[in-house]
């Protein structure tokens, strides 16, 4: 819901969080006056397996999809569909088994109105897809397993570790950031079957560890929704008008790529050209224990959460990057994450609020954002959700999302 500066509103927004203890919680953000906000725990539900890790909200069907990070190469995770009622209460509708280690998901479209969800499985070294709406024990449309014959230069690179699935602005391609293999895998969506067909990957230097990524287009810069295939797509644009920005957990960098598309009639794959790599930290020096985690974009501002840098001790940092007309980015400022290990960060639809999910301190911080300048302001509300977790362990708060 829109934040106003005149109404003395209650219950201006609803958020959902996951916690590695096995819970999904509903939070209510209220505004008592212009500068008085509160964030309250409305309900907590034991659901989504033993290690809920990621939420994807489908507003068109009022369904919340939750991935379970339990399992691994030989174990099983799960995908749970929860219906959202008019009061934002949750009811578990369906659940199905998946490969282990689900840490990210995205909804995409096929032909004839079919819809699917793709999941990145970190410890399961796989990407899976499922048809929607989810039914109990729905079988996978596709499971793509990865392996590597050697061990990468970093301790986390014993095996492939897909960390995020990203839908491109045309809705025709899915990218998979693979931290364990130093590669961003690219797939074309087959409209008839919903399956993913392999395109050339974006290769990264050894030890880079791609984690998350975002696309920029002229429409996204205006705050519009992602373009659909029925509209003017980025395939019709020149390369500088579409860009992909990726943060690398192990390399401590943000990399910018121009994206060019072949003519739609050819059915070809997109081409990514690296144009910049930078360290999102003052003087280009990432602290020894600091690692980029989440990356978000709104307008010409990018935001990268920095875990364990203690930039605002005892709290960590959020780096704001300013994007210039040629697509290059530069560090604008660091602001507080208002907690330890900011694993997730989401901007509301209006663009005036940011929710930061701090994993180890297990709190959600609501921060003001200036929609015109992109500047992050003061903390408006804060709430601890569940027990704090040990830094470096799969404990504490794992995700947060706006219900909009």
UniProtKB/TrEMBL annotation:
InterPro entries linked to this entry: Cycloisomerase_2, Lactonase_7-beta_prop, WD40/YVTN_repeat-like_dom_sf
The record's GO molecular-function terms, alphabetically, read:
6-phosphogluconolactonase activity
Q: What top-level branch of life does the organism fall under?
A: Eukaryota
Recorded family membership? Belongs to the cycloisomerase 2 family.
Q: Name one Pfam family in it.
A: Lactonase
Q: What is this protein called?
A: 6-phosphogluconolactonase
């Amino acid at each position: 819901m829109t934040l106003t500066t005149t109404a003395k509103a209650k219950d201006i927004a609803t958020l959902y969080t996951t916690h590695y203890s096995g819970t999904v919680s509903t939070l209510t953000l209220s505004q008592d006056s212009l500068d008085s906000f509160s964030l309250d725990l409305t309900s907590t539900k034991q659901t989504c397996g033993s290690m809920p890790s990621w939420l994807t909200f489908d507003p068109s069907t009022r369904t919340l999809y939750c991935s379970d990070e339990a399992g691994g190469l030989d174990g099983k995770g799960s995908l749970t569909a929860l219906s959202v009622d008019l009061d934002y209460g949750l009811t578990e509708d369906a659940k199905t088994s998946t490969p282990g280690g689900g840490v990210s998901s995205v909804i995409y479209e096929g032909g004839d109105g079919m819809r699917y969800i793709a999941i990145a499985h970190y410890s399961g070294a796989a990407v899976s897809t499922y048809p929607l709406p989810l039914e109990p024990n729905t079988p996978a449309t596709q499971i793509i397993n990865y392996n590597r014959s050697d061990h990468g230069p970093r301790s986390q690179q014993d095996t492939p570790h897909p960390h995020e699935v990203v839908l491109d602005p045309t809705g025709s391609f899915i990218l998979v950031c693979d931290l364990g293999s130093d590669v961003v895998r690219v797939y074309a969506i087959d409209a008839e079957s919903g399956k993913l067909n392999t395109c050339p990957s974006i290769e990264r230097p050894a030890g880079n560890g791609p984690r998350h990524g975002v696309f920029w287009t002229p429409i996204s810069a205006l705050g519009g929704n992602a373009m659909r295939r029925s509209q003017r797509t980025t395939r019709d644009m020149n390369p500088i008008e579409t860009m992909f920005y990726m943060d690398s957990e192990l390399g401590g960098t943000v990399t910018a790529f121009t994206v060019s598309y072949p003519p739609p009639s050819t059915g070809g794959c997109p081409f990514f050209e690296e144009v910049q790599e930078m360290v999102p930290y003052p003087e280009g020096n990432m602290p020894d224990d600091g690692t980029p985690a989440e990356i978000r974009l709104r307008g010409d501002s990018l935001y990268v959460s920095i875990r364990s840098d203690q930039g605002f001790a005892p709290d960590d940092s959020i780096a704001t990057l300013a994007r210039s007309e040629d697509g290059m980015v530069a560090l604008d400022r660091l602001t507080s994450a208002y907690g330890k290990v900011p694993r997730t960060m989401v901007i509301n639809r209006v663009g005036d609020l940011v929710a930061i999910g701090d994993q180890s301190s297990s709190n959600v911080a609501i921060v003001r954002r200036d929609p015109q300048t992109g500047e992050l302001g003061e903390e408006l509300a804060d709430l601890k959700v569940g027990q704090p977790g040990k830094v470096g362990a799969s404990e504490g708060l794992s995700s947060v999302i706006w219900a909009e």
